[in-house]
Amino acid sequence: MSLLYNTKIKLRNLLGRDNFFLTSIEKSFDWIKSLIPFEVRYYPEFSRFKKFLIQSQYWSKEKLDEFQYEKTKTLLEYAEKFVPYYQKKFAEYGVSSKDFINLQDIKKFPTVTKEEIRDNLELFISKKFPKYKLMYVTTGGSTAIPFGFYQPPSLEKIDLAFFDYHWNWAGCKLTDLSVVLRGEFVGSEKKLFDYKPVKNEWRFSTYYLNEKTFDIYFNKLNQIKPVFIQAYPSAAELFAQMIIERNYKLSFKLKAIMLGSENVYDEQIDLIERAFEAKVHTWYGQAERVCLAPWSKNSRLFHVLPQYGLTELVDSEGNEINQEDQTGEIIATGFYNFAMPFIRYRTMDLATHTNQKSPDGFNFRLFKRIEGRIQELIVTSTGRLISMTAINMHDETFDNVRQFQFYQDTPGKLILKILPNQKFSEKDLQRIYNNLKFKLGDDTSLEIKIVDSIPRTKSGKLRFLEQKLEIKNWHKIEKIK
């Protein structure tokens, strides 16, 4: 399976992802694969883990801690025996798996970064796994650090079980019919939609979604009548704006809008839920698969799944955070990638801690907010750091704006690019400037530019802040008011 996957990726890079020959072969394989029942297709990991997650979801904190200790201990023993880089680094730090007596002892072990893994890739691969049996995975590059790594084929099956589990909290299953507003399918002006049978999903090209094509998209959505929608928040927001502007209504009832892969803000959520008349379900995760934290059925708190990995939230000195509303970096250890273990992996993502209890009865760690990437902080001339979450508006500030993006390459100077809609006026421009300047303060200048388009990343994501400065003292982040 991994050999087939890696060959497909190489051909796609060589011929282009929309090459007719390649897509025809891939589509044929998809149709054949779709004839196999889902649980058989991903046997045995999917069924086994799905059952385990249901059995363990209401375990006591003590039992969950015991489970996490055993998984982490096993991984540390494995890494120091079979993974060259950890053998070397543990020796340099004077630690071994024998020093891991309780969960708090994880702090004795060194962290690893994206740069370390990228620059020492071969040394991170376990001696137990031939490379040809592994899948090579690359991230979307949202940290501006090019990054690829290896994982066994079984990891995808395990991950699907976790996603099916928490999507059930929103009343949906992986096998339900869905519409996807993400970046996987580029399409063309003549081909805006594509059905992927192996996933039972219709992929809508977000690259050609605009004022002229919107009615085609909306009619297609009503024709398909999916159970739920999967989307980047920025794509769902754009679609929602056009629904509201035209006063359109869906002809069917959606169960949920699944938002992932970009940070999501309250203003976006409110708009999307109003337009689609359905609840948003979102989560924090990453391609490296070390931490997974979805919203629960009855709250907008991020529930860190303890069965997925060991997650720490630390300050700039590496100390564990446990105070209400304190912000720190997520450092995580994934439990299931033995081909290339991620142990105390620095995600470069920031989250805000809460001591609240889950309203759904889970004894899981909770995050109040995901503040975003360390690189998604605005730097003022006096050195203050402002989170994009703090810039989030809960009023009419961005009315009549289709999309926007901040850009910074100098401390204290911020550029805001605005893609306006047809109703945009000088009054809107002045309101945006005044409201943002109030939040930014006197130590940051603001320049607004009206643009015809805002470029997305290769994977179709929209960055709300294109930050060219290197962020080091992230612990100075402003408290969210």
Structure description:
Helices cover 32% and strands 23% of the residues. With 481 residues, the protein is α/β, with parallel strands linked by helices. The chain folds into 3 domains: 1-35; 41-176 and 227-373, ANL, N-terminal domain (Rossmann fold, 3-Layer(aba) Sandwich), CATH 3.40.50.12780; 377-476, GMP Synthetase, Chain A, domain 3, CATH 3.30.300. The chain has a 12-stranded mixed β-sheet. A 4-stranded mixed β-sheet has the order 19-18-17-20. Strands 1-2 form a two-stranded antiparallel sheet. Helix 4 (45-56) packs across helix 8 (153-167) and helix 5 (61-82) packs across helix 6 (84-93). It is globular.
Could you give the topology of this structure?
Blueprint: H1 2-15, H2 20-34, H3 38-41, H4 45-56, H5 61-82, H6 84-93, H7 114-119, E1 135-138, E2 148-151, H8 153-167, E3 178-181, E4 193-196, E5 201-204, H9 214-224, E6 228-231, H10 233-246, E7 256-259, H11 266-276, E8 279-284, E9 293-296, E10 299-304, E11 309-314, E12 327-334, E13 345-353, E14 365-373, E15 377-379, E16 385-387, H12 388-391, E17 401-410, E18 413-420, H13 426-440, E19 445-450, E20 465-467
Parallel strand pairs: 3-5, 3-6, 6-7, 7-8, 17-20, 18-19
Antiparallel strand pairs: 1-2, 4-5, 8-9, 9-10, 10-14, 11-12, 12-13, 13-14, 15-16, 17-18
Helix pairs in contact: 4-8, 5-6, 10-11
CATH topology of the largest domain: Rossmann fold
Number of helices: 13
Q: Gap between N and C termini, in Å?
A: 50 Å
Classified by CATH, the class of the largest domain is Alpha Beta
**Judging from the principal axes of the Cα atoms, what is the shape?**
globular
The major pleated sheet works out as: 12 strands, mixed
Strand content: 15-25%
Structural class assignment:
alpha/beta
**What is the CATH-assigned architecture of the largest domain?**
3-Layer(aba) Sandwich
